[in-house]
Amino acid sequence: MTVVDVSFEVRCERLPRDYGYALYEALAGALDWLEDEASAGVHPLHGTAAADGELFLGRRARLMLRLTEERAERSLALAGARLALGSGLEVGAGKVRALMPYATVHSHFVNTGCADEAEFLARAAAELREAGLPERMISGKAHAMSTPEGELRGFSLLLHGLSPAQSLAVQARGLGQGRKIGCGIFVPHKSVVAVGAD
């Protein structure tokens, strides 16, 4: 099973800063198979945080989905949709992109079910061991996210010293819980530096 990213152009004047669950709900309403697709992931959106608790997306912002190739092709039907999120998120054209096997990968927010950093690292290491992946990692900034079940807490995480096969494997499977709300999705990182400054 080949896993890829789908990148969509987006336009949106403003979003709530804690948008993860709301974005998933909006996408699940537009893609009727997303809720049942266990391996699907939704990348965090990148923008500029404002003092009033909102997030502004620039022209280069992209909505990114991590999906199997089959689902990726079906997801392209999102183009032209307007999602009920913030001031309204307009989805433009989408492109399918292969995952790149960098030796160092980074996730903005990994959730292993605990807020204590030492326990977080222990659980992350155990999950990596179980998947046959190396446990070379550096934790960074603490994060929190609201969901209907309560607040999720976790940390950014960098994995390094990966072989090409290991890099693609961890990008395809993710780490921890909450891939559909932006957690545990790894992307290439060019060097082992300043993971806490993401």
CATH architecture of the largest domain: 2-Layer Sandwich
Strand order of the largest sheet: 3-6-1-8-7
Q: What overall geometry do the principal axes of the alpha carbons give?
A: globular
Strands, count: 12
Q: Percent of residues in helical segments?
A: 10-25%
Query: Can you count the helices?
Result: 4
Which stretches of 5+ consecutive residues score pLDDT under 50? 193-198
- State the CATH class of the largest domain: Alpha Beta
Q: Any idea what the radius of gyration is?
A: 16 Å
The whole-number mean of residue pLDDT values reads 92
As for the number of domains, it is 2
Give a short account of the largest sheet. Answer: 5 strands, antiparallel
Structural class computed from helices and strand pairing: alpha+beta
Strand content: 25-35%
Query: What is the CATH topology of the largest domain?
Result: Alpha-Beta Plaits
Cα(first) to Cα(last) distance is 31 Å
Task: Give the topology string: H per helix, E per strand.
Answer: EEHEEEEHEEEHEEHE
Offer a quick outline of the entry.
This protein is α+β, with helices and mostly antiparallel strands and about 200 residues long. It has helices at about 20-30, 70-75, 115-130, 165-175; strands at about 5-10, 15, 40, 50, 55, 60-70, 80-85, 90-100, 105-110, 135-145, 150-160, 185-190.
